[in-house]
Amino acid sequence: MAQHEDELDGVFVALADPTRRQVVRRLGRGPASVGELARPFAMTLPSFMKHVRALEASGLIRTAKSGRVRTCVLNRDRLGLLDDWLAEERRGWEARTDRLEHVVTHPEETP
């Protein structure tokens, strides 16, 4: 996991913004054009494009332009990076709480 720290940092930074999280959530239902993604937000298209570029730079989305339409697609593999990190953290905390539970329930075995 340590080899992916920079990538993970980029994903967390990208997801730190609520607009970008909503875009990721929407793209979870399927590809969408930038115009469609921008419609629910009260901001100019150039401002919205900054969010698209941030998501693209983090690897969370891919975009492709066909004529005048830029379509965005969620990169589910990148979300897998988050899943892996969370699973690793969860295993560590579960092991710690298991050891604590053992110490509390079996104090006679504690050195």
Automatic annotation (TrEMBL):
Gene3D superfamilies: Winged helix-like DNA-binding domain superfamily/Winged helix DNA-binding domain
InterPro entries the UniProt entry points to: ArsR-like_HTH (IPR011991), HTH_ArsR_DNA-bd_dom (IPR001845), WH-like_DNA-bd_sf (IPR036388), WH_DNA-bd_sf (IPR036390)
Tagged with keyword DNA-binding: yes
Name by which UniProt lists this protein: DNA-binding transcriptional ArsR family regulator
Pfam families per the UniProt record, alphabetical: HTH_20
UniProt keyword annotations, A-Z: DNA-binding
Domain HTH arsR-type: 1-94
A GO term, aspect molecular function: DNA binding
Organism: Modestobacter versicolor
